[in-house]
């Protein structure tokens, strides 16, 4: 998939999320944040741009309506954080933990999730355009009523994920793994699956396959 990478300058100064906690229009840009713990906080409508964030913890933090462009996250923990109604563009989450993250009603474009954990994540009513999930676990995640446009699932665990009211036309899940999925038959039209997965779907439909 052709995707725009984050445009982040070199030699960035060090900053901290606590520095903008009480600002009326919180914004961080052209900087690096390292080893920061910013859990159980509320920082709505924050804008992030052209920055690198490494080894940070944002557990249970409310980042609703966050806007990020050209941001690289490495080894960060967003478990149970709230990023609903977010805007993400040209960003990467590498080796990140996003267990139970709320990304409902979001717009996500040119974003990569690489070797990350998104189990039980909620992305309902979101639009994903040029989004790549690579070697990522999405077990139990909810993609209810989403719009997919050039979305890639490569070597992912999508077991028990929900794709109800989300068209999978043109989506390739053939090298990802699952035991069960929640998806309607019409929305599977045009989805690319492996032979084994085709048998799994047939079994889920109640078909009896004989030699």
Automatic annotation (TrEMBL):
PANTHER family, A to Z: ANTIBIOTIC RESISTANCE PROTEIN MCBG, PENTAPEPTIDE REPEAT-CONTAINING PROTEIN
Name listed for the protein in its UniProt record: Pentapeptide repeat-containing protein
Annotated SUPFAM superfamilies: Pentapeptide repeat-like (SSF141571)
InterPro entries: 5peptide_repeat, PA_immunity-related
Pfam families for this protein: Pentapeptide_4
Gene3D superfamilies with a match to the protein in the record: E3 ubiquitin-protein ligase SopA
